[in-house]
Amino acid sequence: TQLLEQSPQFLSIQEGENLTVYCNSSSVFSSLQWYRQEPGEGPVLLVTVVTGGEVKKLKRLTFQFGDARKDSSLHITAAQPGDTGLYLCAVLILIQGAQKLVFGQGTRLTINP
Amino acid sequence: GAGVSQSPSNKVTEKGKDVELRCDPISGHTALYWYRQSLGQGLEFLIYFQGNSAPDKSGLPSDRFSAERTGGSVSTLTIQRTQQEDSAVYLCASSLAGGNSGNTIYFGEGSWLTVV
User: How far apart are CA A6 and CA A32, in angstroms?
Assistant: First the structure.
């Protein structure tokens, strides 16, 4: 079973529409990160949320951390073709002295002009 | 360099051959990570280095996989006797220290491995 479940796995919408993608878990985390990955590149950090209920905005992107710190959402307003990419949530966990940045499976977003 | 550098960017190899993938982290970054990403999938954690030490190697898929880091800088991921299921993008990342301390983890562009 995945530590982080992302939904939907695929989303294709028209330019100008709004959308929300989700990252859910049954575990509680001290923080959660969102990354965007474009073809041929590595993931790039968008935001880190650390407080239950926290909302962070990055231009047209709004990130929310659940009150119980088990889930998060990413909302995009008036999507643009440049928003196309793979959106990944991730948490940093410490196991036996090793740090692991564990990713969800991602949401592959396509914005059609 | 300014970012995490990986080489080769693309590698096609025959089944059964050994391959070495190299990662040059950002200068001064003590933490280094290797991930594998199969086509259209998320990232699978392989191994983490703090300095030259890898406290947990359990993410490596089999004993054909090994990784080392020397001088607290460059790391090499070696896959012996490659199999077709090893085909994937291998991503390296680095950070100043552990990411838990709030340091951003930066990824390279990856090495695309195809085993034929």
Answer: 13
